[in-house]
Amino acid sequence: SKKAESKVPDKLIVGTNAEFPPFEYMNDKKQPEGFDIAMIKEIGKRMGKKVEIKNMEFKSLIGAMESDSINAIIAGMTKTEKREKAVDFSDSYYTTNQAIILKKDSKITKLAQLDGKKIGVQEGTTGDLISSGDKFGDGKKAKVLVKGAKVKRFKKGVDAVMDLKNGSVDAVVIDELTANEFVKKNAKKLKIVIDSAGSEYYCIALTKGNTAYKEEVNKQIKAIKEDGTYDKLKAKYIDS
Ligand code: ARG
Fold it and tell me: Locate the Solute-binding protein family 3/N-terminal domain: which residues (predicted)?
């Protein structure tokens, strides 16, 4: 594969999938908004660069970066060893877990109990990988958490939740904060169970091999955390 230039690009061309509240969603004006969007705009501003957001399917993001149609991804994307073969990851800006969304009366309390069950997931996410019996976790800690489930893949997590409501799937496996957002809207019918598959570290994916770019982005993440801007954005989008 070609070797990337180590140079900060003139413009941040950022891929996202705005189906993942509170990190990214479409606002009333049909524009991507959320914690991630605010973070990347702040990073771009501090770098003195324009930021262009391109909304696409989650499973298309890494390919779009490999073909150079974007040079950054911010999408609540968990750093994984497999993805790291195709992209570089910034320092982590958020740590979370997977959640299982269930009907209120479900007896399931653990990922291991999803054996033989129908699970709805957003295609290409870590929830998909875990449900599909992929090894989850890094290095020696990687293990299979869900065996023998029937996985139904959706372009949008919210559609998996619809299928759970109408009984077409038994569970949805998705990141905790997004699960909270979806369940809030269906509080009478649904509940959340956390069976920690291990921490997931959200990072910004950047063009592989572009060290200067990664260092600059990391510098800005650090500054945003240190001067209180991070907490302000978290209060606005996540803790509200
Ligand atoms: N953290 C999970 C992953 O990296 C899910 C991210 C989904 N993000 C989105 N914008 N739809 O696979």
Answer: 11-240
